[in-house]
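ok new one. same drill as before - structure tokens go in, u give me an amino acid for every spot. 270 of them this time. try not to just spam alanines like last time pls lmao
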């Protein structure tokens, strides 16, 4: 968290403000994020024109004329567009000033990142190793079936492996598996082509529904304008252990997979 829907919503919120603007200033209040904010970033960015804002997996790419600012929201981060004179809070670590406004990164747990890259963004080591975009035409049942062949790992782990599929985290893996009727511990290699097709469709449907609902706000995530997401009220299984399944009425169960909580319905998911 934030996962692909929240990052895409952030992209859509900040892109209209940033695109075409000239960057006027940078404030770094804490360099100690997941990877240190580069020294001298202001010298590099001031005067740069923003060409656009893209997303790759869970990364935001602010494309400039001489490079790209790559931003990751980590586990608790959010980006907001505020008036330039808005006072910063204790967890506001980075500001990008433009057109009398400020793009502000708030990250209480400091697992986010702000990095500068002079080459093509897709060649950055963090982006180059990412797998297929789940909302792209390249992701379908056949692609998932090929990726799953010969793998003994649980299908939930495969969905969350960014080297295979970019952007799916714990929440949307659990919700997608529920919609597809697949038990999260099922070995990926055992899924038939038909079940992979159903799961790929469920992944796309879940992500698009989440984007339409403004993403999930569980703790810290907010949109660029400060609004909260609403998809958490639509969860079928995530964080609903003991609550009745919305389809069959039996209790949702929680197990631990790879040190992460997994939620599922043992009756509806096989």
């Amino acid at each position: 968290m934030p996962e692909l829907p929240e990052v895409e919503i952030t992209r859509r919120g900040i892109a209209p403000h940033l695109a075409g603007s000239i960057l006027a200033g940078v404030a770094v209040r804490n360099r100690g994020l997941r990877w240190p904010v580069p020294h001298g970033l202001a010298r590099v960015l001031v005067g740069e024109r923003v060409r656009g804002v893209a997303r790759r997996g869970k990364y935001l790419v602010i494309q400039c004329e001489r490079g790209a600012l790559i931003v990751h929201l980590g586990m608790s981060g959010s980006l907001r567009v505020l008036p330039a004179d808005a006072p910063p809070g204790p967890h506001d670590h980075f500001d990008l000033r433009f057109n009398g406004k400020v793009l502000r990164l708030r990250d209480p747990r400091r697992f986010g990142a702000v990095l500068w890259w002079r080459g093509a963004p897709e060649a950055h080591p963090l982006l180059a190793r990412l797998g297929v975009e789940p909302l792209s035409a390249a992701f379908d049942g056949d692609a998932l079936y090929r990726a799953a062949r010969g793998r003994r790992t649980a299908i939930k782990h495969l969905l969350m492996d960014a080297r295979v599929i970019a952007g799916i985290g714990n929440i949307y893996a659990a919700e997608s598996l529920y919609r597809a009727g697949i038990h999260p511990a099922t070995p990926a290699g055992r899924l038939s082509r038909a079940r992979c097709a159903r799961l790929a469709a469920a992944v796309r449907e879940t992500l698009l529904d989440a984007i339409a609902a403004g993403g999930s706000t569980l703790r810290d995530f907010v949109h660029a304008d400060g609004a909260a997401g609403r998809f958490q009220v639509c969860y079928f299984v995530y964080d609903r252990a003991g609550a009745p399944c919305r389809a069959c009425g039996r209790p949702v169960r929680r197990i631990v997979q790879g040190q992460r909580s997994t939620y599922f319905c043992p009756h509806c998911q096989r």
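The mean pLDDT is 96. and btw Helices lie at 4-18, 41-45, 125-128, 141-148, 155-159, 170-180, 193-212.
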